[in-house]
Design a protein that fits this description.
Elements: E1 8-12, H1 17-26, E2 31-36, H2 40-43, E3 51-55, H3 61-74, E4 79-82, H4 95-115, E5 119-125, H5 149-164, E6 169-175, E7 177-179, H6 186-195, E8 204-206, E9 212-213, E10 215-217, H7 218-230, E11 238-243, E12 249-250, H8 251-263, E13 270-272, H9 274-291, H10 314-319, H11 330-343, H12 345-351, H13 363-373, H14 375-388, H15 393-396, H16 400-420, H17 424-439, H18 444-462, H19 472-496, H20 509-532, H21 548-568, H22 571-587, H23 592-613, H24 619-626, H25 629-643
Parallel strand pairs: 1-2, 1-4, 2-3, 4-5, 5-6, 6-11, 7-10, 8-13
Antiparallel strand pairs: 9-12
Helix pairs in contact: 1-7, 3-4, 4-5, 8-11, 11-12, 13-16, 14-16, 14-18, 16-17, 17-19, 17-22, 18-19, 20-21, 20-23, 21-22, 21-23, 22-25, 23-25
Length: 648
């Protein structure tokens, strides 16, 4: 972790809309332990030395407890920000509301009690209040009396929060509709997209256009949360606060703003009576069901036509204190929304992909957890298959312990790939392994068949687990497809790696390579000493955190691959390993500059030591031709790996 002097906070739902923005704003103010069901790469969350990322489903009590225990052993936790939750706009009673919003919240509260935190902040919603027949603005004292499933699950969360306020301070924040300069609030996105589409319904507004809610810019939402933590000592033991603007924007006002900014002049709306709008929505839903393309509008929304919710957050704003700057009100931000919509349409639509259509169960996490639980059993089965089957004669002759280690490594890389969608590590490792197996005399077909057999065994064994019976497609996508891509990479590697049996001894390469073998312990020791020295603590801070045996293993392997560059002019194996190592270090959040510096330092020390001690004629020229070109390649391949998106 980066700075141990900062207050420590656990953030659930860190991969969500509010979570990502909170991490960006808070990364220099807190030591953050982020919990999410998606990876940082998948959700594009910020990477920082003060952020530790844990992929956990909060409804998985055992895995959550293990994670919380690990976090508690690292740092004293001061705060928890609970943003994780489920919602959709179907307004149907999904079991996910009970599972995630109620049971998941209860799990987090129980863990918070064990950690003895100072304050727990819970993300609630203004929609817990039924404002359809409310004449007065909603305040912090308004009862949570809405009847639809999401509101009831949030009300239960607030009730549990109050119960646990005997153990630690608790704050529930009822948020208004949160938007960004890219919109990212589905109802507003649907309205704006329709109004500028030019389609038959682009001018239609239900009722008299008086439907209205309160909006809050994401920057203001994050600042509000930060203010709560800043004022921790001054706030009540338990309280409910409102984070929302007091003013509202009606659909008619939004329509006029949108069309004026998009087309240069406001459009002329066509108002549809509530009864006719209800019939229209029913027809669209029926057609959408047949066409398997449901519209955003739902029947329940008819009840809210020409209704509005206004708020009076004076108590909340005075307690903190807090103020929303005028420039962050929706009418002032609309120009930025329209500019992004017009100038960057692809990103606009990508950012507004309907989050409610994502699978809340996160099959990748379920499969990953089962893989972890079944690891030893499945690894043993793969090992037994490879060392006994007549189809793999070269594997039969390998030392079982070394083969087990290799299978373990592939299995762990596959498990990580399934959980976070990043296939790069598996593919890079097999390219590196191809160079080792070719040197060992393994035929291409035997390596590829063993690779694919490994995948078949894993899938066969996982399909026997009751919780994964219906996840065949996810297993094939996460495991079989990944290994097929790796097999394709092995094909390429075998065609590119030179035949090591053909060596021109006259050029001195083989003699120098043999001499390098005798220098191995000395040079590996020199490199390790260099990376861990007090003099270079600022250059290699992350290497000082690695176990020394692991560091020594990686240095030794790089050195052996450099011998391959000298002996056989085999740059493919070396670069393949650097690519694989970069993918690992990227996940461990090593800065690319530190990784480049460490590898290039290893190469420079190797060259300097051999020049100083070698008795081989023209050793300097051989080193320059065989190792020198890889200096530039190291930087290029690390840049490429760190810039690549996830292979999904």
């Amino acid at each position: 972790m980066g700075n141990s002097e900062l207050p420590a906070i656990i953030v659930t739902g860190a991969s969500g809309f509010i979570g990502r923005h909170f991490l960006e704003a808070a990364k220099n103010k807190f030591s953050i332990f982020a919990i999410a069901r998606r990876s940082q790469i998948e959700c594009n969350a910020p990477r920082h030395k003060n952020i530790e990322w844990y992929m956990v489903d909060i409804t998985d009590r055992v895995e959550l407890e293990n994670t919380i225990n690990r976090i508690g052993s690292i740092s004293k936790i001061n705060f928890i920000l609970h943003l994780a939750g489920y919602y959709d706009f179907e307004c149907l009673d999904s079991p996910e509301y009970q599972r995630t919003n109620v049971e998941g919240t209860k799990n987090i509260l129980e863990m918070a009690a064990k950690l003895k935190i100072e304050r727990f902040v819970f993300s609630s919603s203004l929609t817990v209040c039924d404002f359809r027949n409310c004449e007065m603005p909603v305040t912090e004292k308004s009862p949570p009396n809405a009847k639809f499933p999401y509101a009831q699950s949030k009300r239960r969360g607030e009730e549990m929060l109050k119960e646990y306020s005997d153990h630690f301070s608790c704050t529930a924040i009822r948020f208004g509709a949160i938007f960004s300069d890219w919109c990212e609030y589905e109802p507003l996105y649907s309205l704006m997209s329709t109004w500028v589409s030019g389609k038959w319904n682009s001018r239609i507004i239900a009722g008299k256009g008086k439907t209205a809610i309160t909006y809050l810019h994401i920057k203001c939402a994050v600042l509000f949360i930060l203010k709560v933590f800043q004022q921790d000592k001054a706030l009540k033991k338990f309280d409910i606060l409102i984070a929302s603007c007091s003013n509202t924007q009606t659909h008619l006002e939004l329509y006029r703003m949108t069309t004026r900014l998009y087309f240069g002049k406001p459009g002329k709306p066509i108002f549809i009576p509530k009864a006719l709008a209800a019939i229209g929505i029913m027809l669209r839903c029926a057609i959408g069901k047949i066409m398997k393309k449901k519209p955003f509008e739902k029947i329940w929304m008819v009840n809210y036509i020409d209704r509005f919710i206004s708020t009076n957050p004076e108590y909340s704003f005075t307690s903190l204190p807090f103020k929303i700057r005028e420039r962050y009100h929706l009418p002032r931000r609309m120009i930025y929304l329209i500019e992004n919509m017009k100038s960057f349409p692809q990103e606009w639509h990508s950012r507004n992909m309907n989050p409610s259509r994502k699978d809340p169960s996160r099959p990748n996490l379920i499969i990953g957890n089962v893989m972890n639980f079944e690891k030893e059993r499945i690894v043993n089965k793969i090992l037994a298959d490879l060392i006994t089957s007549p189809d793999y004669p070269n594997y039969n002759s390998l030392e079982p312990d070394k083969l087990r280690w290799s299978i373990h490594l592939v299995y762990n890389l596959l498990m990580a790939s399934v959980r976070n969608g990043d296939r790069h590590s598996v593919i890079s490792y097999y390219r590196y392994l191809a160079s080792i197996r070719k040197k060992g005399g393994f035929p291409l077909d035997e390596l590829k068949n063993a690779l694919l057999r490994l995948g078949d065994i894993i899938i066969e064994e996982l399909e026997r687990v009751p919780s994964l019976i219906k996840m065949g497609q996810h297993l094939n996508n996460g495991i079989k497809l990944t290994l097929e891509m790796a097999a394709d990479e092995v094909d390429d590697a075998y065609s590119e790696i030179p035949d090591h049996s053909v060596v021109n001894e006259k050029n001195g390469r083989l003699a120098l390579g043999q001499e390098m073998v005798t220098f191995e312990k000395h040079i590996v020791s020199k490199v390790k000493e260099f990376l861990l020295s007090e003099e270079h603590i600022s250059r290699f801070p992350n290497y000082r955190k690695k176990p020394q045996e692991e560091l020594k293993w990686h240095i030794t392997l790089i050195y052996k691959l450099l011998i391959g560059c000298v002996n056989y002019n085999d740059h493919v194996s070396f670069i393949s390993y650097i690519s694989y190592l970069a993918s690992i270090r990227r996940k461990e959040e090593f800065p690319p500059a530190e990784l480049k510096d460490a590898i290039c330092s290893t190469m420079n020390i190797t060259i300097d030591q051999i020049k100083e001690n070698s008795l081989i004629e023209r050793s300097e020229d051989i080193l320059e031709k065989s190792i020198g070109p890889n200096m530039k390649r190291v930087s290029q391949v690390i840049n490429k790996v760190y810039s690549e998106s996830v292979l999904i």
